[in-house]
Design a protein that fits this description.
mainly alpha, Growth Hormone, Chain: A, 16 helices
Length: 375
Protein backbone atom coordinates (compact mmCIF):
# COMPACT_ATOMS: atom_id res chain seq x y z
CA UNK A 1 0.00 0.00 0.00
CA UNK A 2 2.88 2.37 0.73
CA UNK A 3 4.34 1.95 -2.74
CA UNK A 4 0.91 2.49 -4.27
CA UNK A 5 0.64 5.72 -2.31
CA UNK A 6 4.06 6.84 -3.55
CA UNK A 7 2.96 6.15 -7.11
CA UNK A 8 -0.30 8.05 -6.69
CA UNK A 9 1.57 11.12 -5.47
CA UNK A 10 4.32 11.31 -8.09
CA UNK A 11 3.67 9.07 -11.13
CA UNK A 12 1.52 11.65 -12.93
CA UNK A 13 4.02 14.41 -12.16
CA UNK A 14 6.87 12.15 -13.27
CA UNK A 15 4.93 11.47 -16.44
CA UNK A 16 4.93 15.20 -17.20
CA UNK A 17 8.73 15.07 -17.15
CA UNK A 18 9.30 12.13 -19.50
CA UNK A 19 6.10 11.99 -21.60
CA UNK A 20 6.35 13.41 -25.15
CA UNK A 21 2.96 15.15 -24.73
CA UNK A 22 1.31 16.55 -21.54
CA UNK A 23 -1.90 14.57 -22.03
CA UNK A 24 0.14 11.35 -21.75
CA UNK A 25 1.28 12.22 -18.23
CA UNK A 26 -1.11 9.81 -16.49
CA UNK A 27 -0.55 6.98 -18.98
CA UNK A 28 2.03 5.25 -16.72
CA UNK A 29 -0.49 5.14 -13.86
CA UNK A 30 -3.11 3.87 -16.28
CA UNK A 31 -0.72 1.15 -17.41
CA UNK A 32 -0.31 0.17 -13.77
CA UNK A 33 -4.03 -0.41 -13.46
CA UNK A 34 -4.18 -2.24 -16.80
CA UNK A 35 -1.41 -4.64 -15.78
CA UNK A 36 -3.09 -5.04 -12.40
CA UNK A 37 -6.27 -6.00 -14.23
CA UNK A 38 -4.44 -8.53 -16.38
CA UNK A 39 -2.69 -10.12 -13.40
CA UNK A 40 -5.65 -10.57 -11.05
CA UNK A 41 -7.23 -13.65 -12.62
CA UNK A 42 -3.94 -15.54 -13.24
CA UNK A 43 -2.83 -14.66 -9.70
CA UNK A 44 -6.04 -16.06 -8.23
CA UNK A 45 -5.75 -19.29 -10.20
CA UNK A 46 -2.08 -19.68 -9.26
CA UNK A 47 -2.97 -19.17 -5.60
CA UNK A 48 -5.64 -21.82 -5.94
CA UNK A 49 -3.02 -24.24 -7.26
CA UNK A 50 0.12 -23.38 -5.27
CA UNK A 51 -1.21 -21.46 -2.27
CA UNK A 52 -1.17 -17.75 -1.54
CA UNK A 53 2.27 -17.37 0.09
CA UNK A 54 4.51 -18.13 -2.95
CA UNK A 55 2.51 -15.74 -5.11
CA UNK A 56 2.64 -13.01 -2.46
CA UNK A 57 6.44 -13.39 -2.32
CA UNK A 58 6.61 -13.16 -6.11
CA UNK A 59 4.54 -9.98 -5.99
CA UNK A 60 6.95 -8.30 -3.56
CA UNK A 61 9.93 -9.12 -5.78
CA UNK A 62 8.14 -7.83 -8.88
CA UNK A 63 7.15 -4.52 -7.29
CA UNK A 64 10.69 -3.93 -6.02
CA UNK A 65 12.06 -4.45 -9.53
CA UNK A 66 9.31 -2.26 -10.99
CA UNK A 67 9.95 0.71 -8.72
CA UNK A 68 13.69 0.50 -9.30
CA UNK A 69 12.93 0.45 -13.02
CA UNK A 70 10.76 3.55 -12.69
CA UNK A 71 13.63 5.40 -11.04
CA UNK A 72 16.12 4.34 -13.72
CA UNK A 73 13.72 5.29 -16.51
CA UNK A 74 13.29 8.75 -15.02
CA UNK A 75 17.04 9.24 -14.74
CA UNK A 76 17.52 8.28 -18.39
CA UNK A 77 14.43 10.09 -19.70
CA UNK A 78 13.02 6.85 -21.13
CA UNK A 79 9.21 7.12 -21.33
CA UNK A 80 8.78 3.61 -22.76
CA UNK A 81 10.90 2.21 -19.95
CA UNK A 82 8.85 4.14 -17.42
CA UNK A 83 5.67 2.61 -18.85
CA UNK A 84 7.13 -0.90 -18.70
CA UNK A 85 8.31 -0.46 -15.11
CA UNK A 86 4.92 0.94 -14.14
CA UNK A 87 3.30 -2.18 -15.58
CA UNK A 88 5.50 -4.34 -13.34
CA UNK A 89 4.35 -2.32 -10.34
CA UNK A 90 0.74 -2.73 -11.44
CA UNK A 91 0.99 -6.49 -11.84
CA UNK A 92 2.29 -6.74 -8.28
CA UNK A 93 -0.59 -4.59 -7.05
CA UNK A 94 -2.94 -7.06 -8.71
CA UNK A 95 -1.42 -9.81 -6.57
CA UNK A 96 -1.54 -7.68 -3.42
CA UNK A 97 -5.30 -7.24 -3.73
CA UNK A 98 -5.70 -10.81 -2.50
CA UNK A 99 -4.42 -10.02 0.99
CA UNK A 100 -7.97 -9.10 1.98
CA UNK A 101 -9.38 -12.37 0.63
CA UNK A 102 -6.62 -14.37 2.31
CA UNK A 103 -7.64 -12.85 5.62
CA UNK A 104 -11.37 -13.31 4.98
CA UNK A 105 -10.95 -16.97 4.05
CA UNK A 106 -9.41 -17.71 7.46
CA UNK A 107 -12.36 -16.59 9.62
CA UNK A 108 -16.01 -17.43 10.20
CA UNK A 109 -18.73 -16.03 7.94
CA UNK A 110 -19.91 -13.26 10.27
CA UNK A 111 -16.33 -12.05 10.80
CA UNK A 112 -15.47 -11.54 7.12
CA UNK A 113 -16.50 -7.83 6.93
CA UNK A 114 -14.49 -7.05 10.06
CA UNK A 115 -11.38 -8.86 8.82
CA UNK A 116 -11.54 -7.24 5.36
CA UNK A 117 -11.81 -3.87 7.09
CA UNK A 118 -8.81 -4.52 9.33
CA UNK A 119 -6.63 -5.60 6.40
CA UNK A 120 -7.47 -2.39 4.56
CA UNK A 121 -6.83 -0.40 7.72
CA UNK A 122 -3.15 -0.97 7.06
CA UNK A 123 -3.53 1.75 4.46
CA UNK A 124 -3.51 4.32 7.28
CA UNK A 125 0.13 3.50 7.96
CA UNK A 126 0.77 3.54 4.21
CA UNK A 127 -0.69 7.04 3.94
CA UNK A 128 1.80 8.47 6.41
CA UNK A 129 4.69 6.33 5.16
CA UNK A 130 4.16 7.10 1.48
CA UNK A 131 3.88 10.87 1.92
CA UNK A 132 6.86 10.97 4.27
CA UNK A 133 9.01 8.92 1.91
CA UNK A 134 8.20 11.33 -0.92
CA UNK A 135 8.82 14.43 1.19
CA UNK A 136 12.12 13.12 2.60
CA UNK A 137 13.60 11.59 -0.56
CA UNK A 138 12.42 14.01 -3.25
CA UNK A 139 15.37 15.57 -5.07
CA UNK A 140 18.04 13.44 -3.38
CA UNK A 141 19.41 12.36 -6.75
CA UNK A 142 20.58 15.07 -9.17
CA UNK A 143 18.87 15.43 -12.51
CA UNK A 144 15.29 14.25 -11.96
CA UNK A 145 13.40 15.36 -8.88
CA UNK A 146 11.27 12.25 -8.27
CA UNK A 147 13.66 9.39 -9.16
CA UNK A 148 14.94 8.94 -5.61
CA UNK A 149 11.38 8.42 -4.35
CA UNK A 150 10.98 5.35 -6.55
CA UNK A 151 14.30 3.86 -5.41
CA UNK A 152 13.23 4.37 -1.79
CA UNK A 153 10.00 2.48 -2.51
CA UNK A 154 11.97 -0.42 -4.00
CA UNK A 155 14.15 -0.66 -0.89
CA UNK A 156 11.03 -0.64 1.29
CA UNK A 157 9.67 -3.67 -0.56
CA UNK A 158 12.89 -5.61 -0.01
CA UNK A 159 12.69 -4.81 3.70
CA UNK A 160 9.12 -6.21 3.74
CA UNK A 161 10.13 -9.46 2.03
CA UNK A 162 11.11 -11.35 5.24
CA UNK A 163 7.71 -10.51 6.71
CA UNK A 164 5.94 -12.08 3.73
CA UNK A 165 8.20 -15.13 3.92
CA UNK A 166 7.19 -15.66 7.55
CA UNK A 167 3.44 -15.71 6.80
CA UNK A 168 1.50 -18.86 7.63
CA UNK A 169 -1.19 -19.59 5.08
CA UNK A 170 -3.48 -22.64 4.95
CA UNK A 171 -2.49 -25.39 2.50
CA UNK A 172 -4.37 -25.83 -0.74
CA UNK A 173 -6.92 -28.59 -0.22
CA UNK A 174 -9.53 -27.98 -2.91
CA UNK A 175 -9.41 -27.88 -6.68
CA UNK A 176 -10.13 -24.54 -8.33
CA UNK A 177 -12.42 -26.17 -10.91
CA UNK A 178 -15.18 -27.22 -8.52
CA UNK A 179 -18.37 -25.49 -7.45
CA UNK A 180 -21.12 -23.71 -9.31
CA UNK A 181 -20.63 -21.99 -12.69
CA UNK A 182 -19.96 -18.25 -12.72
CA UNK A 183 -23.29 -17.61 -14.43
CA UNK A 184 -25.04 -18.51 -11.17
CA UNK A 185 -23.28 -15.67 -9.38
CA UNK A 186 -23.96 -13.10 -12.07
CA UNK A 187 -27.67 -13.88 -11.90
CA UNK A 188 -27.75 -13.17 -8.18
CA UNK A 189 -28.71 -9.55 -7.32
CA UNK A 190 -26.74 -9.49 -4.08
CA UNK A 191 -23.45 -10.65 -5.58
CA UNK A 192 -23.94 -8.37 -8.57
CA UNK A 193 -24.66 -5.32 -6.42
CA UNK A 194 -21.54 -6.00 -4.34
CA UNK A 195 -19.41 -6.30 -7.45
CA UNK A 196 -20.88 -3.12 -8.97
CA UNK A 197 -20.38 -1.19 -5.73
CA UNK A 198 -16.73 -2.25 -5.47
CA UNK A 199 -15.92 -1.81 -9.17
CA UNK A 200 -17.63 1.50 -9.90
CA UNK A 201 -16.92 2.90 -6.44
CA UNK A 202 -13.23 2.23 -7.01
CA UNK A 203 -13.34 3.65 -10.54
CA UNK A 204 -14.86 6.96 -9.39
CA UNK A 205 -12.16 7.34 -6.77
CA UNK A 206 -9.41 6.46 -9.26
CA UNK A 207 -10.83 8.82 -11.88
CA UNK A 208 -10.58 11.84 -9.57
CA UNK A 209 -7.45 10.75 -7.71
CA UNK A 210 -5.46 10.22 -10.92
CA UNK A 211 -6.18 13.72 -12.18
CA UNK A 212 -5.83 15.45 -8.80
CA UNK A 213 -2.01 15.87 -8.73
CA UNK A 214 -2.07 17.38 -12.23
CA UNK A 215 -4.85 19.76 -11.21
CA UNK A 216 -3.25 20.70 -7.89
CA UNK A 217 0.33 21.28 -9.10
CA UNK A 218 0.14 21.98 -12.83
CA UNK A 219 -3.14 23.92 -13.03
CA UNK A 220 -3.58 25.56 -9.64
CA UNK A 221 0.14 26.05 -9.08
CA UNK A 222 0.25 24.58 -5.59
CA UNK A 223 3.44 23.00 -4.27
CA UNK A 224 4.56 19.37 -4.29
CA UNK A 225 4.29 19.32 -0.49
CA UNK A 226 0.68 20.54 -0.66
CA UNK A 227 -0.09 17.87 -3.24
CA UNK A 228 1.50 15.22 -1.02
CA UNK A 229 -0.56 16.45 1.95
CA UNK A 230 -3.81 16.23 -0.04
CA UNK A 231 -3.01 12.70 -1.22
CA UNK A 232 -1.84 11.66 2.25
CA UNK A 233 -5.14 12.62 3.86
CA UNK A 234 -7.04 11.16 0.93
CA UNK A 235 -5.38 7.80 1.61
CA UNK A 236 -5.98 8.18 5.36
CA UNK A 237 -9.66 8.76 4.61
CA UNK A 238 -9.63 5.68 2.39
CA UNK A 239 -8.34 3.36 5.08
CA UNK A 240 -8.92 4.88 8.53
CA UNK A 241 -12.65 3.96 8.54
CA UNK A 242 -11.62 0.34 8.01
CA UNK A 243 -11.13 0.03 11.76
CA UNK A 244 -14.91 0.17 12.16
CA UNK A 245 -16.47 -0.28 8.68
CA UNK A 246 -16.95 -4.01 9.30
CA UNK A 247 -18.86 -3.27 12.50
CA UNK A 248 -20.98 -0.67 10.68
CA UNK A 249 -21.86 -3.23 8.00
CA UNK A 250 -23.01 -5.68 10.66
CA UNK A 251 -24.96 -2.92 12.43
CA UNK A 252 -26.65 -1.17 9.48
CA UNK A 253 -26.41 -3.74 6.69
CA UNK A 254 -24.63 -3.67 3.35
CA UNK A 255 -27.30 -1.57 1.68
CA UNK A 256 -27.15 1.12 4.34
CA UNK A 257 -23.38 1.52 4.04
CA UNK A 258 -23.51 1.62 0.24
CA UNK A 259 -26.21 4.32 0.26
CA UNK A 260 -24.31 6.39 2.83
CA UNK A 261 -21.14 6.12 0.73
CA UNK A 262 -22.98 7.27 -2.38
CA UNK A 263 -24.23 10.29 -0.46
CA UNK A 264 -20.64 11.12 0.51
CA UNK A 265 -19.61 10.91 -3.16
CA UNK A 266 -22.41 13.31 -4.05
CA UNK A 267 -21.24 15.83 -1.44
CA UNK A 268 -17.68 15.53 -2.78
CA UNK A 269 -18.84 16.47 -6.27
CA UNK A 270 -20.70 19.50 -4.90
CA UNK A 271 -17.50 20.70 -3.21
CA UNK A 272 -15.46 19.97 -6.34
CA UNK A 273 -17.51 22.18 -8.64
CA UNK A 274 -17.56 25.09 -6.19
CA UNK A 275 -13.88 25.97 -5.85
CA UNK A 276 -10.23 25.44 -6.80
CA UNK A 277 -8.40 26.26 -3.58
CA UNK A 278 -6.18 23.96 -1.54
CA UNK A 279 -9.00 23.33 0.92
CA UNK A 280 -11.41 22.45 -1.89
CA UNK A 281 -8.98 19.82 -3.18
CA UNK A 282 -8.30 18.61 0.35
CA UNK A 283 -12.02 18.26 1.12
CA UNK A 284 -12.90 16.60 -2.18
CA UNK A 285 -10.19 13.94 -1.92
CA UNK A 286 -10.96 13.38 1.78
CA UNK A 287 -14.65 12.79 1.04
CA UNK A 288 -13.89 10.59 -1.96
CA UNK A 289 -11.62 8.48 0.25
CA UNK A 290 -14.38 8.01 2.82
CA UNK A 291 -16.92 7.07 0.17
CA UNK A 292 -14.51 4.64 -1.45
CA UNK A 293 -13.97 2.81 1.83
CA UNK A 294 -17.65 2.12 2.38
CA UNK A 295 -18.21 0.93 -1.18
CA UNK A 296 -15.06 -1.16 -1.51
CA UNK A 297 -15.18 -2.83 1.90
CA UNK A 298 -18.88 -3.60 1.57
CA UNK A 299 -18.53 -4.87 -1.98
CA UNK A 300 -15.51 -7.02 -1.08
CA UNK A 301 -17.32 -8.49 1.94
CA UNK A 302 -20.31 -9.42 -0.24
CA UNK A 303 -18.02 -11.04 -2.81
CA UNK A 304 -16.05 -12.92 -0.14
CA UNK A 305 -19.27 -14.26 1.43
CA UNK A 306 -20.74 -15.39 -1.89
CA UNK A 307 -18.50 -18.35 -2.70
CA UNK A 308 -17.85 -21.75 -1.17
CA UNK A 309 -14.17 -22.72 -0.59
CA UNK A 310 -13.87 -24.57 -3.89
CA UNK A 311 -15.37 -21.59 -5.76
CA UNK A 312 -13.25 -18.81 -4.26
CA UNK A 313 -10.37 -18.83 -6.73
CA UNK A 314 -12.54 -18.31 -9.80
CA UNK A 315 -15.16 -16.05 -8.17
CA UNK A 316 -12.63 -13.78 -6.48
CA UNK A 317 -10.46 -13.85 -9.59
CA UNK A 318 -13.17 -12.78 -12.02
CA UNK A 319 -14.47 -10.21 -9.53
CA UNK A 320 -11.08 -8.56 -9.13
CA UNK A 321 -10.53 -8.74 -12.88
CA UNK A 322 -13.72 -6.73 -13.42
CA UNK A 323 -12.86 -4.31 -10.61
CA UNK A 324 -9.38 -3.63 -11.95
CA UNK A 325 -10.70 -3.37 -15.52
CA UNK A 326 -12.99 -0.54 -14.41
CA UNK A 327 -10.09 1.05 -12.50
CA UNK A 328 -7.91 0.86 -15.62
CA UNK A 329 -10.57 2.47 -17.80
CA UNK A 330 -11.11 5.31 -15.35
CA UNK A 331 -7.39 5.92 -14.92
CA UNK A 332 -6.73 5.75 -18.64
CA UNK A 333 -9.43 8.32 -19.36
CA UNK A 334 -8.58 10.63 -16.45
CA UNK A 335 -5.47 12.24 -17.91
CA UNK A 336 -6.91 12.93 -21.35
CA UNK A 337 -10.28 14.10 -19.99
CA UNK A 338 -8.57 16.42 -17.53
CA UNK A 339 -6.63 17.88 -20.45
CA UNK A 340 -9.73 18.15 -22.68
CA UNK A 341 -12.66 19.08 -20.42
CA UNK A 342 -11.13 20.10 -17.10
CA UNK A 343 -11.49 19.23 -13.44
CA UNK A 344 -15.04 20.45 -12.80
CA UNK A 345 -16.53 18.65 -15.79
CA UNK A 346 -14.82 15.47 -14.62
CA UNK A 347 -16.56 15.86 -11.28
CA UNK A 348 -19.97 16.12 -12.91
CA UNK A 349 -19.21 13.06 -15.05
CA UNK A 350 -18.36 11.07 -11.93
CA UNK A 351 -22.04 11.20 -10.97
CA UNK A 352 -22.89 8.73 -13.76
CA UNK A 353 -21.32 5.64 -12.13
CA UNK A 354 -22.67 6.83 -8.78
CA UNK A 355 -26.17 6.66 -10.27
CA UNK A 356 -25.49 3.16 -11.63
CA UNK A 357 -24.44 1.89 -8.19
CA UNK A 358 -27.59 3.41 -6.71
CA UNK A 359 -29.80 1.62 -9.23
CA UNK A 360 -28.21 -1.78 -8.57
CA UNK A 361 -28.37 -1.28 -4.80
CA UNK A 362 -32.05 -0.38 -4.91
CA UNK A 363 -32.67 -3.43 -7.09
CA UNK A 364 -30.96 -5.63 -4.50
CA UNK A 365 -33.09 -4.13 -1.74
CA UNK A 366 -36.29 -4.67 -3.71
CA UNK A 367 -35.53 -8.35 -4.38
CA UNK A 368 -35.33 -8.99 -0.63
CA UNK A 369 -32.48 -11.49 -1.10
CA UNK A 370 -30.54 -11.07 2.09
CA UNK A 371 -28.84 -14.45 2.07
CA UNK A 372 -25.13 -13.79 1.45
CA UNK A 373 -24.78 -17.07 -0.45
CA UNK A 374 -25.88 -17.24 -4.06
CA UNK A 375 -28.52 -19.74 -4.97
Amino acid sequence: MTTLNINIIIVGLSGLIVAPQPWLATLPLSFQFISSMLSTLPASLLMGRFGRKPIFVLGVIIIACGMAGQGLALLTGNFAGFLLASMLVGSAHGIAQYYRYAAADSVAEDQKPVVVSLVLAGGVIAAFAGANIVNNTIGLLPGVIYASCFFAGAVLQLIALPVILSLRTPPVTKQVTGGRPLSVFFRNPRFLSGLIAAALGYSVMTFLMTAAPLQIVSVSGLSDSENALVIQWHVIAMFMPSFFTGWLIRRFGSEGIILASLMIYGIAVMVLINGLSFWHYFSVLLLVGLGWNGLYVTGSAIIAASAEPEERAKVQGISDFIITMMIAISSLSAGSLHYLIGWKSMGVGALIPVAVILIFTLAMMLTGKNNPKTT
